[in-house]
Design brief:
six-stranded mixed beta sheet, Beta-carbonic Anhydrase, Chain A, 191 residues, globular, 36% helix
Length: 191
């Protein structure tokens, strides 16, 4: 877990995130910051996995939340753009988590096909075709590598928006910041 930064106090939050909705998210969720603020509008866009084991502790109206397998927002581009353009969002948190079902999804092909046959009434051949058509689009590989890449992809697409890659540990229900290497290209773009 050397790629993760534990956030247990405000002092653990890197300077670039202080006084931003990202810091507020970390404080609400990890530090039990009192939820005594009434938000009129969303301050943050959160992209996170559809996994049912994760629940953020945040105030009402604080964030737009897009849930997609593996926190893969590639197929939610219009929704992200809408939140930025119309919702005036300037901060995004993309949150991966451990034990994600979108990691090595190709190994779950038979379970997927058999589940569609048994629980949805599909024909086996159609279930195989469905898996083969879509699985490669949603496979994320390693959670931490994927979320770093997803954050960088979003930064390139929306250069005026701060994007924070986070990691939700389903074992302790805490959010961690993902440690990133300096990216000279992105730093030059932001100057």
């Amino acid at each position: 877990m050397t790629n993760l930064i534990a956030i247990n106090s405000v002092d653990d939050i890197p300077k670039k995130y202080l006084n931003t909705p990202v810091a507020d998210l970390l404080q609400y969720h990890n530090m039990s910051k009192p939820i005594d603020v009434a938000y009129d509008k969303a301050e943050l866009l959160v992209g996170m996995c559809m996994d049912n084991r994760k629940r953020l502790i945040i105030p009402n109206n604080f964030a737009f939340i897009i849930r997609a397998g593996g926190a893969n927002l590639r197929y939610s581009a219009f929704k992200v753009s809408y939140a930025i353009a119309v919702g005036k969002i300037r901060h995004i948190a993309v949150i991966a988590h451990n034990n994600c079902g979108m990691v090595n999804v190709s190994a779950r092909k038979e379970d997927f096909v058999n589940g569609l046959v048994e629980f949805a009434g599909w024909q086996k051949q159609k279930a195989y075709e469905h898996f083969d058509e879509f699985a490669h689009k949603f496979e994320i590989g390693n959670e931490i590598s994927f979320i770093k890449n997803e954050a960088n992809r979003l930064r390139l697409r929306y250069p005026k928006v701060m994007v924070a890659p986070l990691y939700y540990n389903v074992d302790d229900n805490k959010l961690y910041l993902v440690r990133e290497e300096k990216n000279k290209f992105l730093e030059e773009l932001s100057e």
